[in-house]
Design goal:
The chain is an alpha+beta fold. It is built from 1 helix and 4 strands, in the order E-E-H-E-E. About 5% of the residues are buried.
C-alpha cells in the first residue's frame, strides 16, 4: 500500500507536491477505513482536489 501525506492548502512559493488519483467510493456503499482517514484529513483542513476520476490526494514516495 502506498503511503500518503496530507499537506496544508497554503504551500510556500516554489513548493511542489506529487498527486495521486484515488477513485471515489460508490454512492450508498460503506466507506472504507482509508476513505474515512482521508475524510478526516479533509475535515481538518488538509488539501484534496476533486476530479472526474475521483479525488486527488498528495502522495509521499
Amino acid at each position: 500500500m502506498k503511503n500518503y501525506l496530507a499537506v496544508p492548502v497554503s504551500l510556500c512559493e516554489g513548493q511542489t507536491v506529487r498527486l495521486r488519483v484515488v477513485p471515489e467510493v460508490a454512492r450508498g456503499k460503506p466507506k472504507t477505513e482509508l476513505d474515512k482517514a482521508f475524510q478526516l484529513m479533509v475535515d481538518q483542513g488538509w488539501m484534496t482536489v476533486p476530479t472526474e476520476q475521483g479525488k486527488i490526494y498528495p502522495e509521499l514516495e
